[in-house]
């Protein structure tokens, strides 16, 4: 961080009469020459705020005057005046003031050296809004609360209390557990505070007190990122025959980035205006008072949340979606109700195929009967090779009607991956409408020509807490994880979609059916009597074919990742766009310019930016976009939908204040059971809810922050997980696959931004000779298309840090010139095409 501006200042109220002619003579003869300004009596008494303004003016003048010392005298009364001295850092203002008012005294000598920084710490970037000190300070004053009296009564030194509280708050703002700061006034010292979460407030204060006592003395002028002042009452001092008392104006020169002091019963924070904004410092001050009060009350350090009293009220309100009654039934029951209300309504359309609700219900009953005849019912899991087709929808509903749960698998995935997912899920059978071309590790069940079954046969009914489906996502340990979603979760999620407005008329479901994002639009339409429109594989890949679909099927609702919706806006005609009633996007960041484009084409159609992982039945928060979002740097994902809870927590699972990043946790009845057959990862991610008795929270791994008006913004991933065109990809899974090849010694995979595009890049260290084409072919045999890297860079060794870890920064900045590879002929459609449908982890409803 740049050093101070090279100037320092002091101000005193002096009792006595100034001999102005003598002072003019002395300043004119001084070497270096001292610039003297004397305000006339007509200027009147100078107030404290005006004092800060005068100091600023003198500093600006000194900057343009090669840093010459400057002195200003302003009369306050007949025998009383204000003295301001601005000097270069190496020349203390107090010494110049003493020289000026002491007849015959020699001009003071400058100290050696330049301004140093006290300690190596820094105020967290979450608080700083600027990058360079301005040299000027502004000040925030707020009441210090009841803590001051408690500390004084207990004999706790002010500087120790301020150091302890500010250190805790720095940690709550995302700083590390060790905080470097300076204790100034009198004999300044640099102190290092270790924030120990396990101790009591009293114990922590005692340890900080010892750290201050054992601090390293520093010589002024010293500039600290964080400084606390000792509580002192200005003592009169003698300048020659005159008496002077120092004053601290609220706006003057910044001697530290952030200086915290106690003035009477008020907390005062001086901050460099080039580094901080007033609103941020005022919020910081309010939270600091809260921390002081918690420590004074001897609360354990880990229980100090750093929220103001108002924030402790508003954050729970922001974090909780409003309660809404949800039918306590299974998902298929709601679809059966739609069929009973209007059996002739069209339920599903895909290409030339179409089913009414009567036909869907009848066909699903036949599937359910076939499964039950094979002994499959409640507690069983049926794998479905689910391509985009009406038959796949029939199979999904039929499995649910049988009482079993389904696990959809993309039939176009590599055979090895399909077999691995079948074994991982523990599926009892595979149900398919035709014989697959691969060997299966579990029994295959094909439909037969059983008669129509219009009513239910006797069977054990599933409960809303029973498993509905299992969706597999990329796994950080090198293996995909199956997420076990129960009926209550998807029913809750589907009911919450009412916040998006009118129920679907004709809902275009873009994601492949093996992704949970498809469940959002699919079941919202089927449970409300709407029509599900599935694109064919050609329509999903070809933007022009998609445009014809939008025109032909009179689509009213669209759910897509932003990149797909951008293509639709470009290819769809005005008539098709005018029919849209609602558009929801999610799965990847929504660019503000896409909001602007939507508003140009569809000014009357609501656009929602949605967020939510598979582990909470697709979504959890939503934000209706407006003109203001088109001008933002980032578009929020809004607030929790009905019956959901959304928390932003720090490492100690404490709520973070507005503006402070943390990890996003989700709660409510839509939280999944966990990961199928993986108790370890389930225990790590699905945690007891500290805010809701008997509740559970899902730890998303996403970073976020609340805005000051209670809207959630996403900030990326806590771990290494990345999003590629809406698909959630764990680089570890790709790395583990590549490392299994005998020709490969090592591999690292990461996401890079190249020419405004996000590209998945694999850095490979071979053991023996292997061509990039062969390596890519191997990947295509084991990985789905969205997980195959766009680039493969062959290295002799992976760059590593001194600690032995892979140097991600080097990989992110390494040139890829010469390493670009050709797209595979069949399994790698270009990124941005409709083939890359959104991952169900964070897709729209």
UniProtKB/TrEMBL annotation:
One family name in Pfam for this protein: AMP-binding
Cellular component GO terms held in the UniProt record: cytoplasm
GO-annotated molecular function: phosphopantetheine binding
The organism's place on the tree of life at top rank: Bacteria
UniProt GO BP: amino acid activation for nonribosomal peptide biosynthetic process; secondary metabolite biosynthetic process
Biased composition (Basic and acidic residues): 820-829
Domain AMP-dependent synthetase/ligase: 336-675
InterPro entries named among the record's database cross-references: AA_adenyl_dom, AMP-bd_C, AMP-bd_C_sf, AMP-binding_CS, AMP-dep_synth/lig_dom, ANL_N_sf
Region: Disordered, residue numbers: 815-845
AMP-binding enzyme C-terminal domain mapped to chain residues: 733-805
Name of the molecule in the record: Amino acid adenylation domain-containing protein
Organism: Streptomyces alkaliphilus
């Amino acid at each position: 961080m740049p050093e101070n501006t090279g100037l320092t200042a002091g101000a005193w109220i002096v009792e006595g009469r100034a001999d102005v002619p003598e002072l003019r003579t002395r300043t004119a003869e001084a070497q270096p020459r001292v610039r003297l300004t004397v305000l006339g009596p007509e200027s009147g008494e100078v107030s404290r705020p005006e004092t800060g303004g005068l100091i600023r003016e003198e500093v600006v003048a000194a900057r343009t005057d090669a840093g010459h010392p400057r002195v200003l005298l302003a009369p306050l009364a007949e025998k009383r005046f204000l003295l301001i001295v601005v000097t270069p850092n190496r020349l203390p203002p107090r010494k110049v003031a003493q020289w000026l008012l002491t007849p015959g005294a020699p001009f003071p000598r400058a100290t050696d050296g330049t301004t140093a920084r006290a300690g190596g710490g820094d105020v967290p970037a979450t608080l700083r809004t600027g990058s360079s000190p301005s040299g000027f300070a502004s000040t925030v004053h707020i009441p210090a609360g009841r803590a001051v009296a408690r500390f004084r009564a207990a004999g706790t030194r002010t500087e120790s209390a301020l150091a302890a509280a500010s250190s805790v708050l720095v940690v709550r703002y995302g700083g590390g557990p060790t905080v470097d700061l300076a204790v100034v006034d009198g004999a300044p010292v640099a102190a290092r505070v270790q924030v120990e979460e396990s101790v009591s407030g009293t114990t922590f204060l005692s340890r900080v007190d010892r750290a201050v006592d054992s601090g390293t003395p520093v010589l002024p002028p010293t500039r600290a990122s964080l400084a606390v002042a000792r509580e002192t009452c200005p003592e009169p001092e003698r300048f020659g025959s005159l008496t002077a008392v120092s004053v601290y104006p609220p706006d003057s020169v910044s001697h530290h980035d952030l200086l915290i002091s106690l003035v009477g019963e008020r907390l005062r924070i001086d901050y460099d205006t080039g580094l901080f904004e007033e609103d941020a410092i005022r919020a910081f001050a309010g939270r600091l008072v809260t921390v002081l009060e918690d420590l004074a009350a001897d609360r354990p350090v880990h229980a100090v949340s750093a929220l103001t009293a108002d924030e402790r009220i508003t954050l729970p309100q922001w974090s909780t979606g409003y309660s809404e009654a949800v039918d306590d039934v299974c998902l298929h029951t709601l679809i059966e109700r739609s069929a009973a209300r209007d059996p002739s309504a069209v339920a599903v359309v895909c290409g030339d195929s179409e089913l009414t609700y009567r036909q869907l219900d009848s066909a699903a009953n036949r599937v359910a009967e076939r499964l039950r005849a094979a002994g499959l019912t409640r507690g069983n899991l049926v794998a479905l090779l689910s391509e985009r087709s009406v038959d796949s929808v029939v199979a999904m509903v039929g499995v649910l009607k049988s009482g079993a749960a389904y696990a959809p698998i993309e039939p176009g995935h590599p055979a090895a991956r399909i077999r691995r997912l079948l074994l991982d899920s523990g599926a009892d059978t595979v149900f398919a409408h035709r014989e697959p071309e691969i060997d299966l590790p579990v029994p295959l069940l094909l439909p037969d020509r059983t008669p129509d079954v219009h009513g239910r046969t006797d069977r054990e009914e599933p409960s809303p807490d029973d498993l509905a489906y299992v969706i597999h996502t990329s796994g950080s340990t090198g293996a995909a994880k199956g997420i076990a979603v129960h009926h209550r979760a998807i029913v809750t999620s589907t009911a919450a979609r009412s916040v998006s407005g009118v129920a679907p008329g004709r809902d275009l479901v873009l994601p492949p059916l093996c992704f949970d994002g498809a469940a959002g639009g699919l079941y919202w339409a089927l449970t409300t009597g709407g029509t599900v429109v599935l694109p064919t594989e050609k329509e999903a890949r070809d933007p022009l074919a998609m445009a014809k679909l939008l025109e032909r099927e009179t689509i009213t609702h669209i759910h897509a990742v932003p990149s797909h919706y951008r293509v639709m806006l470009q290819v769809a005609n005005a008539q098709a766009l005018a029919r849209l009633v609602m558009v929801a996007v999610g799965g990847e960041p929504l660019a503000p310019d896409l909001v602007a484009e939507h508003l140009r084409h569809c000014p009357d159609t609501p656009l929602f930016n949605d967020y939510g992982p598979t582990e909470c039945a697709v979504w959890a928060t939503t934000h209706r976009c407006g003109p203001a979002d088109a001008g933002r740097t980032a578009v929020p994902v809004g607030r929790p939908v009905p019956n959901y809870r959304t928390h932003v927590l720090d490492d100690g699972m404490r709520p973070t204040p507005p503006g402070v990043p943390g990890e996003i946790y989700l709660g409510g009845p839509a939280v999944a059971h966990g990961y199928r057959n993986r108790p370890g990862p389930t225990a790590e991610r699905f945690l007891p809810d500290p805010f809701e008795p008997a509740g559970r929270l899902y730890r998303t791994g996403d970073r976020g922050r609340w805005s000051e008006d209670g809207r959630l913004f996403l900030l990326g991933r806590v771990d290494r997980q990345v999003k590629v065109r809406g698909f959630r990809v764990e680089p570890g899974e790709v790395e583990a696959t590549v490392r299994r090849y005998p020709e490969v010694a090592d591999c690292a995979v990461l996401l890079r931004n190249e020419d405004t595009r996000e590209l998945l890049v694999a850095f490979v260290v071979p053991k023996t000779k292997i061509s990039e084409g062969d390596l890519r072919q191997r990947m295509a045999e084991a990985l789905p298309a969205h997980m195959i890297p766009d680039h493969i860079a062959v290295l002799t060794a992976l760059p590593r840090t001194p600690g032995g870890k892979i140097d991600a920064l080097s990989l992110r900045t390494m040139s890829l010139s010469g390493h670009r590879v050709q797209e595979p002929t069949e399994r790698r459609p270009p990124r941005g095409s409709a083939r890359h449908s959104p991952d169900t982890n964070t897709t729209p409803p």
